[in-house]
Amino acid sequence: MHRLAPIAERAAAPTTLPSITAGGLHWRSATVDDAQAVVDLANTMYEADGAPYRETIDEARADLAAPWRHLETDSLLGFDDAGELRVTAMIEVPPGDESTVRTYCFGGVHPERRGEGIGREVLAWQLARARQILAASGKDLPARIGVFAEDDDPESRHRMYAHAGLEPRRFYANLKRPLDDDASLPHVELTGSLRLVPWSEELDDAARLAHNDAFRDHWGSEPQTMEQWTNGRSEFAPEWSFVVVDDAPDVEALLADPRTDAATAEALRAGAPLVAGYALNSRYAADFPVRGYSFGYTDVLGTRRAYRGRKAALAALAASMRAFADDGMAAAVLDVDTENPSGAHGLYASLGYVKEHGSRMYSIEL
């Protein structure tokens, strides 16, 4: 196996960050109190770009207040002479990374101030700061700097990312499944000691452990800490969410299975419930007018690797779709990595999900 150079060497972090002079703006770090201005600018940009979503003040506040955020050093806001917010730049560092240490850059420029070179300089600042963060992490692991874009974002944005050395690395499909025909919704029978139950706070950590296990072999996925798992749930719909528990797990076999992670093993020894599959969903009502229909959105869906083939995730998803329909939603919506190793894309197609939008991740791999 090729031995990586120390991350401090690979990151090639600059000693000082590049200045942002384009646009003649006034710059400072963000605070949680900026949530309203940040969300207003975000939605102005989304509308101009034809994005199929909008952000709420609760989502923006939760994002800015996430306990792993370091806004003082990892964010910038650009204001014009009238004090109006015109640019946002954020860098996120997920706290639970174990196999790849990651940084993600978010933000944008008000449509009226585009074409002045501000975006290029802001992106250069973000990439330089991301390199500093990676170098200081002390994690001698593979590293990534990533940004996301909708496939139909302005072409100038895609060119800007490519010019900065970011390469399109992963592609995602946003899928829709109409719910106008109750008879077509799937019925799933679970076998053995598997049982479908509504999501509850008591099962939330067990669902997190199941998620970490389910996505352990997915590209770009890292274990989520409990603070990550529960952060940003302002639109979470517990009444639409379901888990599948194993009432009589083979604890000895699971403990002997090399695929069983340490956190799950500890929970099994403690007699904690074992979640085999899960579907956690949200109600993004602010998106309904943009898309022209109401929908339930599946944020996370998966099955533990030892339980694949036993329809645990399918049962949770089917229950979710029925809950959406019972509440009058017109459709079920979710996103999937087009190269998902579990064959999820084919499963969704068989259930009637059809692609509506696409997005991608650009990255620099270090």
The CATH topology of the largest domain corresponds to Aminopeptidase
Order of helices and strands: HEHHHEEEHEHEEHHEHHEHEHEHE
CATH superfamily of the largest domain: Gcn5-related N-acetyltransferase (GNAT)
Report how far apart the termini are. Answer: 16 Å
SSE-based structural type:
alpha+beta
Describe this structure in words.
By secondary structure, the chain is α+β, with helices and mostly antiparallel strands. It has two domains: 7-165, 3-Layer(aba) Sandwich (Aminopeptidase); 174-359, Aminopeptidase, CATH 3.40.630.30. Helix content is 32%, strand content 25%. It has 13 helices and twelve strands. The chain has helices at residues 7-11, 35-49, 57-65, 71-74, 118-137, 155-163, 204-214, 226-230, 251-256, 262-269, 288-291, 312-326, 344-350; strands at 26-28, 75-79, 85-92, 101-109, 143-150, 167-178, 194-198, 242-246, 274-282, 295-303, 331-337, 354-365. Helix 5 (118-137) links the parallel strand 4 (101-109) and strand 5 (143-150). The longest helix has 20 residues, at 118-137.
